[in-house]
Amino acid sequence: SLNCVEWNLLPPATKEMVAQAEQLTGRFQGDPSFEYENPEADAEDAEGVAEVAKESIMKEEARLVATIDQIDRAVGIIPRGALMKTPLGSVCENRNFEGLSLTEAKKLSSYFHFTEPVNLKNKTLLEKADLDPSTDFLDSLEHDIPQGSWTVQLERGDSVVVLRSLLWLGLTFYHVPMTKQYGYLYFGTGEKNLDLPFML
Length: 200
What we know:
The chain is α+β, with helices and mostly antiparallel strands. It folds into two domains: 15-74, no CATH class; 76-198, no CATH class. It is built from six helices and ten strands, in the order H-E-H-E-H-E-E-E-H-E-H-E-E-E-E-H. It has helices spanning 15-22, 49-55, 60-75, 102-105, 125-128, 196-199, and strands spanning 35-37, 57-59, 77-79, 83-85, 91-93, 111-113, 150-155, 160-165, 171-175, 182-186. The relative contact order is 0.14.
C-alpha cells in the first residue's frame, strides 16, 4: 500500500528473487520502486554488460517479497497439533485442537516449523517410533541450529506464551495455552541476524 487505504497482494516469490535478495545487505528504503544494485555482479564481460546490469538490479518490492518468503520459511511456526495429516497425505486444520497445556507450551518441542520438513526425513526409524504421524509430520524447533536461537517467555501472568526468534530479530510468536489462539508477526528491519552464532 502506498496510502494505507488501498492494499494490493504481493506476487509470489521465485527462487531467483530469493537468491538475489540474499546477496543484498542493508535496510529497506520504504519506496517500492527503489532499485538495489547487486554488489557481486560481474560486469567485466564487455559483451554482456547490458544484460548483467539488467539482471543485477532488484526493486525493493521484489526484495520485500523475497524477504517475507525467507522469514516464513525460516521462522514461521505453529503449535503441535494445530494441523493434522490425513492418511491420504493431505494437511488440514485439526478441529480437535484446544491449545497446548501450560507445561507443554513452555517447551520448544511443542512447536513446529510451518514448512516442508528437512530434519524429520533424516531421523532413524527408532527416533520416528515415538512420533505420531498425524501430528508430528513437521520439524520441531528444539533441533534448530544454532541451539538457543529461540527464547520462550511467559507474559500476562503466565496466560500467554511468547516465542521470539534471535535469527530474525523482530519475529514474535504467541500462543494462549488451552485455547486455539496463536499466531506470529514480524516487526523488524528485514535483516537476518548473521552474528547469532557469535552471540550465543
